[in-house]
TrEMBL record:
It comes from the Bacteria. This is Outer membrane lipoprotein-sorting protein. Gene3D superfamilies: Lipoprotein localisation LolA/LolB/LppX (2.50.20.10). Keywords: Lipoprotein, Signal. Pfam families: LolA_2. Residues 1-21 form the signal peptide. It comes from Hoylesella shahii DSM 15611 = JCM 12083.
Amino acid sequence: MLKKVLLLMCLSIFAFSASKAQTDKEARQVLDKTAAIVGNKGGAQASFKLSNGKLGAINGTISIKGNKFYARTAKATVWFNGKTQWSYMPSTNEVNVSTPNEIQQAAMNPYTFINMYKSGYKLSMNKVGSDYQVHLEAEKGNKGIPEIYVLVDASYKPKQVKMKRGGEWTTITISNFQHKKLSDNLFSFNSKDFPTAEVIDLR
């Protein structure tokens, strides 16, 4: 009898492990397909709504191409050319220049997850209607963004990214996603367009 109980326990553990591995694999496949769509060679554009407890709700548009992005809201315009970031604040007419890390980029670019999920995170997935909800949970030692939820539609386009940072959740809802052929110049600040702005170098 004891042997049968132990055998059933072993089989249950094996079945759970196999199921989890399958879920991880399926979640990764969904994000692989999403990354391929988001990472279109020519670029892409979308509208977004960012909300969290401190900032409230902010609407804007974002353009992406590879690891470059250009985001525009009523409160700020941000350019990132893959290395340098410029943040223009119309309220003060100032441009802050910085070299952000991946976590800092994620604060403005909801598509950062297309690279982050590839290492340092455990993946799991649920179906929400016809959508896929992928949960990214940071592995030990990777605590910058400990959790991310990515909601992807049936055609593998992202609909929502929810990330935890500093104990607080930020939700970015994405709409009107479309591929565009974008010039690399779009992702760098041009001082000629803001001749009176004060440039503050924080690097």
